[in-house]
UniProtKB/TrEMBL annotation, chain A:
Cofactor note: Binds 1 [4Fe-4S] cluster per subunit.
Source species of the chain: Salinicola socius
Protein name, as recorded: 3-isopropylmalate dehydratase large subunit
Oligomer status and interactors: Heterodimer of LeuC and LeuD.
Binding site residues for [4Fe-4S] cluster: 353, 414, 417
A molecular-function term among this protein's GO annotations: metal ion binding
Key words, A-Z: 4Fe-4S, Amino-acid biosynthesis, Branched-chain amino acid biosynthesis, Iron, Iron-sulfur, Leucine biosynthesis, Lyase, Metal-binding
Domain Aconitase/3-isopropylmalate dehydratase large subunit alpha/beta/alpha: 8-464
Catalytic activity: (2R,3S)-3-isopropylmalate = (2S)-2-isopropylmalate
Family assignment from sequence similarity: Belongs to the aconitase/IPM isomerase family. LeuC type 1 subfamily.
Pathway given in the UniProt record: Amino-acid biosynthesis; L-leucine biosynthesis; L-leucine from 3-methyl-2-oxobutanoate: step 2/4
Pfam families in UniProt: Aconitase
UniProtKB/TrEMBL annotation, chain B:
Protein name per Swiss-Prot or TrEMBL: 3-isopropylmalate dehydratase small subunit
Example GO molecular function: 3-isopropylmalate dehydratase activity
Annotated GO CC locations: 3-isopropylmalate dehydratase complex
Enzyme type, top EC level: lyase
Membrane-crossing segments per the record: none
Function: Catalyzes the isomerization between 2-isopropylmalate and 3-isopropylmalate, via the formation of 2-isopropylmaleate.
Gene3D superfamilies reported for this sequence: Aconitase, domain 4
Keywords (A to Z) from UniProt: Amino-acid biosynthesis, Branched-chain amino acid biosynthesis, Leucine biosynthesis, Lyase
EC numbers, comma separated: 4.2.1.33
């Protein structure tokens, strides 16, 4: 057989039928659900008198609307003060109950952001197809699972048929070779990639992230990178299986056990691109050249090195880009030529499906340890990705480090990444955020978002403005990914 | 799904690249558990001068006079002319639901984000990709001529301008077929239940860890 990419293999292993018109039916192994994009799909099933094809493929948890403050959270769904949000979460509970789908409810310790929960439970496994009504489903590709976001009509389609109508994507490889500098993390790598190829650079492609710098990353770091493939326009991000993948999964609740474990591991070892496999596009980055990244605009591609200045729209390639940059500067309240490290902040958010895993929290805590949040920061919050991440962080004492430094330590959920719950920016407020989108209004009406790594966000909270963590004095022992 | 065959529709130009789904429909409106009623909140942050919230009556809200859809000449538009990478960002199907609810049946742009592209066709909205130069020209013509309409023929895959110029466009055969017939693709897929079961009968023994008996 001809050499295949990892994506080619995953596609072939799930192909149910290929139609003459180029579309295909592919089989879905894992379907993750949350409260925002599922109610209309369940309603569709109900109206058509249909049932889920395979109940055991589905796993649900509420994440977007849940409160992150302990007082509200301890009351369960009743603590969701916004009626519309509460109804959406209650609707998920009712739908999972009537269609007999497993759900981790609001105060189940296993609840959390769906893209943190899947891998943490071993419900995401190599060689799977994973879909969810959420574009950040690309996250699960870190496990060599063919994973992508779908719309609500497709959620209904997957529930009813266990399949998706799909078209094969093109293959792109992004190779990052060499060693990352101290203080440079997976988040900086993916922002640098998006800065290079643009927010539509990956449209139509499945991106495989490869090279020694990717292989050196932990699973958490790989999830951060795959998570943001969609911000480069690619629905799918992938990393090949290696020992890190297998070690991470061993012993997780939904992972195979006993005799199935060794059979699975043997099968998973083949989930790599063959030598000589063809990629339609290859992009190469030198890890040593990547600096900590900070976005300055309203698209993730509007990103620069922390040592740089806010760019000048006049230098853009064409008129459309110039207009976009000018509008972004106006919205962000910034001027061309301003030093990134001179940008002062109002709030800091550490969390989201991009950066709320244990390693992210450890990294931020190293910076915060023994220091105090600056006076100009009105709110610095840390929102763990799941109840289990929260428990582990507390067992390591990270919550105390954050609280002593003046951060708020919250309950798990999507929180201020998209501000569907009560956590949001006010108009004109400027935030250093470890999330994935800096779109206008994303974190609150009129709010201004700068995307950064957890270490950069923590340092910005302490100093009140952006600083280069590479020159910041903190204990980097066991520094992640470096 | 709604059928789409042919439309002679008024065109509105949205001159902005990378229009993301948060801009098309902001997150607070995603709390609805229905598929309808999103039209008044389409482009909410561009259209109004205040912050909108779900369940609100939008009729008394202050309109942004500079926003294109607030200009009386574009109010009944059914064709949206847009710039590159339209619909980037999230997978929210609320974006095409809002476009549809407002009255748009067609969006023309140099490129679209993948998930948005899929979601739109599933809701009977035709997305047409044309090269940048052609889109530029359509922007100029739309802005120059009040009441500018395009005749869009899906069967023949052509757009005809008021001057009689025919612009051909590509659309994949399956999506075209579903749109022309207004087909429900769940029904179509369920016709292949035997093939799906056959696949499962091979997939399960090869990967028993992917199945649990619940």
């Amino acid at each position: 057989m001809a050499s295949q990419t990892l994506y080619d293999k995953l596609w072939a292993q799930h192909l149910v039928t290929q139609r003459d018109d180029g579309s295909a039916l592919i089989y879905i192994d894992r379907h993750l659900l949350h409260e925002v994009t599922s109610p209309q799909a369940f309603e569709g099933l109900r109206l058509a008198g249909r049932k889920p094809w395979r109940r055991d493929a589905n796993l649900a948890t509420p994440d977007h609307n849940v409160p992150t403050t302990l007082k509200e959270r301890s009351a369960g769904n009743a603590g969701i003060l916004d009626d519309v949000s509460r109804i959406q979460v209650e609707t998920l509970d009712a739908n999972c109950e009537s269609f007999e789908i497993e759900e981790f409810r609001i105060n189940d310790e296993r609840q959390g952001i769906v893209h943190v929960v899947g891998p943490e439970q071993g419900a995401t496994l190599p060689g799977m197809t994973v879909v969810c009504g959420d574009s950040h489903t690309a996250t699960h590709g870190a496990f060599a699972a063919l994973s992508h976001g779908i719309g609500t009509s497709e959620v209904e389609h997957v529930l009813a048929t266990q399949c998706l109508i799909a078209q094969k994507m093109k293959n792109m490889q992004v190779r990052v070779e060499g060693k990352l500098g101290l203080g440079v993390t997976a988040k900086d790598v993916v922002l640098a990639i998006i800065g290079r190829i643009g927010t539509a650079g990956g449209t139509g492609y499945a991106i495989e992230f490869a090279g020694s710098a990717i292989r050196d990353l932990s699973m958490e770091g790989r999830m951060t990178i795959c998570n943001m493939a969609i911000e480069a326009g690619a629905r799918v991000g992938l990393v090949a299986v290696d020992d890190n993948t297998i070690d991470y999964l061993k012993g997780r609740p939904y992972a195979p056990t006993a005799e199935q474990w060794s059979a699975a591991v043997e099968a998973w070892r083949d989930l790599v691109s063959d030598d000589g496999a063809h990629f339609d596009k290859i992009v190469e980055l030198d890890a040593a050249e990547i600096e900590p990244q900070v976005t300055w605009g309203t698209s993730p591609e509007m990103v620069v090195n922390v040592s740089a200045e806010v760019p000048d729209p006049a230098t853009a390639a064409d008129e459309t880009v110039t207009q976009g940059m000018t509008r972004a500067l106006e919205y962000m309240g910034l001027s061309a030529g301003q030093k990134i490290t001179d940008i002062r902040l109002d709030k800091v958010f550490i969390g989201s499906c991009t950066n709320s895993r244990i390693e992210d929290l450890r990294e931020a805590a190293k910076v915060a340890r023994g220091r105090k949040v600056a006076d100009n920061i009105q709110l610095a919050m840390v929102v763990p990705g799941s109840g289990l991440v929260k428990r582990l962080a507390e067992a390591e004492g990270l919550d105390r480090v954050f609280v002593e430094a003046g951060f708020e330590w919250r309950e798990p959920g999507c929180s201020m990444c998209l501000a569907m719950n009560a956590d949001k920016l006010g108009a004109g407020e400027r935030c250093a955020s470890t999330s994935n989108r800096n779109f206008e209004g994303r974190q609150g009406y009129g709010g201004r978002t700068h995307l950064v790594s957890p270490a950069m966000a923590a340092a910005a909270a302490i100093e009140g403005h952006f600083v280069d963590v590479r020159s910041y004095d903190y204990d980097r022992a066991d520094a992640m990914s470096a | 799904m709604k059928k789409f065959e042919r439309l002679q529709g008024l065109v509105a130009p949205l001159d902005r690249a990378n229009v993301d789904t948060d801009l098309i429909i902001p997150k607070q409106f995603l709390k609805s558990i229905k598929r309808t009623g999103f039209g008044p909140n389409l482009f909410d942050e561009l259209r109004y001068l205040d912050e909108g919230y779900p369940g609100q009556d939008a009729t008394g809200r202050p309109l942004n006079p500079d926003f294109v859809l607030n200009q009386s000449r574009y109010r009944d538009a059914q064709v949206l002319l847009a710039r590159r990478n339209f619909g980037c960002g999230s997978s929210r199907e609320h974006a095409p639901w809002a476009l549809d609810d407002f009255g748009f049946r067609v969006v023309i742009a140099p490129s679209f984000a993948d998930i948005f592209y899929n979601n739109s066709f599933k809701n009977g909205i035709l997305l047409i990709t044309l090269d940048e130069a052609t889109v530029d020209r359509l922007f100029q013509e739309t802005e120059a001529v009040e009441g500018y309409r395009l005749d869009i023929d899906l069967e023949g895959q052509t757009i005809t301008t008021p001057s009689g110029e025919a612009i051909p466009f590509e659309v994949d055969a399956f999506r075209k077929h579903c749109l022309l017939e207004g087909l429900d693709d769940i029904g179509l897929t369920l016709e292949q239940s035997a093939a799906i079961r056959d696949f499962e009968s091979r997939h399960r023994p090869a990967n028993p860890w992917l199945f649990r008996d619940v």
